[in-house]
Structures are given as C-alpha cells and as structure tokens.
C-alpha cells in the first residue's frame, strides 16, 4: 500500500507511478479499454454514464428500479439531465447497457456509486442506499477494480462505511488476507457538481474534486475523471472531498438564508427593494457574490445536505449554528409566502373559500422538471390547509403533480387569457423562462412574485406584491 500522507501529490508520470494491478487499470483507462459501471441511474448517474459512453467507454448502468432501466434502455427523451438524442444513440450503439443485475458490476473496471442520500424524518442521514449498493458491489468486487462514491454524504462515509462493507462483505477472491484498498482494489470519493438546467456548465467543463483512500486510489480516480472532465483537483483524503461538497451546499444555504432574512426586513421597512440592493452590491468586482431570496429551498441537495454535517457535528459534541439558523430561516419562507397570498386574497372582493389561487411554477428551480422538496409543494399544502379550495398550478415542465401534504393530484393549467382572468391571485414560485410574463401581469388580478420574475414589467405594477420589494 502507498503513503496516505502524500495522497494529493501528482505522480511524476502515470506510467512510472502505477505498479501491478494499478498499472493495468491505468493502461485500460488511458486506452479507453476500461469498462465503466454506474450504480444508480438518476440525475447524477445517467449523465455520467452517457458522458463516458460518448467518450468511447463501454458503460454498464445498474439501477434497482426496473421502470427506470426500461426508460433508459428505450432512450426515453423525457428523462431529464441528458439529451434524449445522445442517450438513444449511445444505447443504440451498445455503448451503454442498463440492467438491474449487480453481478454485471464484476465486468466493470471502474464503478461509480450514484445512489440517493436523503434524510430520515428526524433529519438524520439515510445511509441505506449507499449501504445496499456497497454490499451488492462487495459480492462482485474483483482485483484491480476502482470504486468511486459520488453520492453526497458526511465526511468519513467512504472510509468508515463503504470500505469496511467492501472488504468484509467482499469475497476477496484469490487473496488470503482479503482485499485491501490501494493494493487489491481502489477506492475514492469524488463529489458530483452537476447543476440540472445549467446550459453553461456540464460535466466536461465543471472542475471535479477527487480524494482517494490512498495515493494510488486518488491518482487512479483522477485519471478516470480526466477522461470526462477537463480539470480534476486531487485532495489528500476522501474526508476532505466529502466535507468540500458539504461546504459548497452549506455555503449556498447560508447565503440564501441571509438574503431571505434581508428580504423580510425590506418588506417590513417598505421602502427598499432587496433586489435593487443585491444588484447594486454585485457591482463590487471583488469580495461579493450575489445570492437572491425566494420562496424556500428545493431540490435534492441544498435542503438536505447540510443536515449530514449537523448530524456528524452532534457526534463530535458540536453544534453547527450556521446550518441550524439558515435552515430555520429558509424553512419559514413557504409560510411567509402563504401569509402574503392570504393578504392578497383579503384585498380581493372574494371569500377565502371561493378564492381561486394559481401557483406558477412547481419545479424546485427555473427550467427543470424536478419537483423534489420544491417549496411549491409546501406552499400548496399550506394554502389548502388554510382553506383555499380552488387551487391550481401551471408549469410547462410538470404536466401533472401530486401534492402529498394536501392529498390531491392536479394537472398543469394552460395560461390562456381566459384562464389567467379566472384567478384572484397568482403566486410566482418558480421563474421558468417559458412563462408569458407580460400576459400574466396584464390578465391576472393580483400577483405575488417571489422571484422578481416581473422585474421588466412596467405597467400594472400596482397588482404586483414583490417578495423583498417592500410589498409583502
Ligand atoms: N440531483 C442533483 O442535482 C445532484 C447534484 C449533486 C449531487 N447529487 C447527489 O448525487 C446522489 C444521487 O442523486 P440523484 O439526484 O442522481 O438521485 P436520483 O434519485 O435521481 O437517482 C438515484 C438512482 O439510484 C437508484 N438506486 C437506489 N438505490 C440503488 C442501489 N442500491 N443500487 C442501484 N441503484 C439504486 C434509484 O432507483 C435512482 O434511479 C445523491 O447523493 C445526491 O445528493 C445530486
């Protein structure tokens, strides 16, 4: 095994650095002979599979969900996060094979674990997906394989959870003292930075961080990631890489919370728009980065990942005050928006029970269809609990929606003039680019705008109640 301390240092050259099975794997990667395995074909795993396949690597995708496998195998163009055309092509050419069978992992030289890492109802890490994937991989682990965990998780997961599962549960075939990371197989953590809906940054031009259990593990994972990413940044351990990913997401959560608090203060003061303040502050070319308020956090990552660190901190007798405070502020935002909608209804000549409310945008962010943890779901649930019975939504990316907290299912409303005129209040929760904002402003009686989506509308401003604009 190699030296952990010098883990992040670059080798003199790939050929001279690697020996034994590591060298064989490095050669297979460099010559594109390496077979890639991806466990978990979701928002993270599928684009990665397509990226490797597109670069000439035979790729095997494994997912426990047979329906997901069926859709990927059919090159379903409605799958988000990857172009349907490219997906169909790599599937048709046989560069991506998909299955539910973990025994196929034994064929792969490199396996990326891209399974979910949600939180439990008590907001503790839900590790069963990683555990189950690691146990299934252990059964088929073979000499010379590289395993890379990509799921966002708490520092220590790769070495304290995944490594023992691979080594204790694995067969360690042909090795008397079992498999040892860095000698028989290789293990690293490399967090995912994919930003669904971002047309500027994709896998190739988004730098990626890699931390291996040993120096050889790091360098093999760097070599693997270099096949699909222009810039790879090695760090000294998986723990650093795990913590780095959490820092990225906590950084966003904390800064958004700061702006959400400031937005509420501006509303209280009534004569300052937080949006104008941020725009002005952003003219500073150094030391400031613009963040914006909104109706609350959504998506798979930002509302969830900070809890992984606060859970770990508690195990070290430490309280992560920033995380707790920002979560508290961000989680109150849907309530704040609902209060604004209630005031908007009260201004109309309509009883609450007769009021017709339209939610514009239910995906968790602009121009995507992902509704996981979307603040729109919470807002609709809260409105329904407050007695709004005529509730509808419109979202060009989400044709149908279950609102679990309210127990109903709705279909997206088409934004015709007649439809817009039929609502008493519209609330803009997600600022999709496809929305006809001028029509919305013209034909809707009252609009609660939580995203400053109507910033370019000059007429009809009196109808608009802007979050952080002094109106809510
Ligand atoms: N979605 C994002 O934008 C994003 C960005 C960065 C990081 N991440 C992180 O990446 C990880 C995956 O997220 P995602 O959004 O791709 O999740 P997802 O829910 O879209 O996909 C996960 C897939 O894994 C499959 N799966 C579950 N258990 C499995 C198992 N044991 N073996 C094989 N497949 C299994 C599921 O069926 C599903 O298809 C999470 O840790 C997440 O926090 C996500």
Produce a short descriptive summary:
The chain is of the alpha/beta class. The protein is built from 15 helices and 15 strands. The model has no long low-confidence stretch (mean pLDDT 93).
Question: How would you describe what is shown here?
Answer:
- This protein is 38% helix and 13% strand.
- It is α/β, with parallel strands linked by helices.
- It has an eight-stranded mixed beta sheet with strand order 3-2-1-4-5-6-7-8, sandwiched between helices. Strands 10-9-13-14-15 form a five-stranded parallel beta sheet, with helices on one face.
- The protein starts with 13 loop residues before the first helix and ends in a 6-residue tail after the last strand.
- The site of nicotinamide-adenine-dinucleotide has 26 residues, from α6.
How does the SSE layout of this entry go?
Blueprint: H1 14-17, H2 20-30, E1 36-39, H3 45-54, E2 59-62, H4 66-73, H5 84-92, E3 96-99, E4 110-113, H6 128-138, E5 146-149, H7 157-169, E6 186-189, E7 208-212, H8 215-226, E8 232-234, H9 238-269, H10 274-281, H11 305-315, H12 321-346, E9 356-360, H13 375-385, E10 390-394, E11 400-403, E12 408-411, H14 417-421, E13 425-428, H15 437-443, E14 447-449, E15 464-466
Parallel strand pairs: 1-2, 1-4, 2-3, 4-5, 5-6, 7-8, 9-10, 9-13, 13-14, 14-15
Antiparallel strand pairs: 6-7, 11-12
Helix pairs in contact: 2-8, 6-7, 9-11, 9-12, 12-13
Bound molecules: nicotinamide-adenine-dinucleotide.
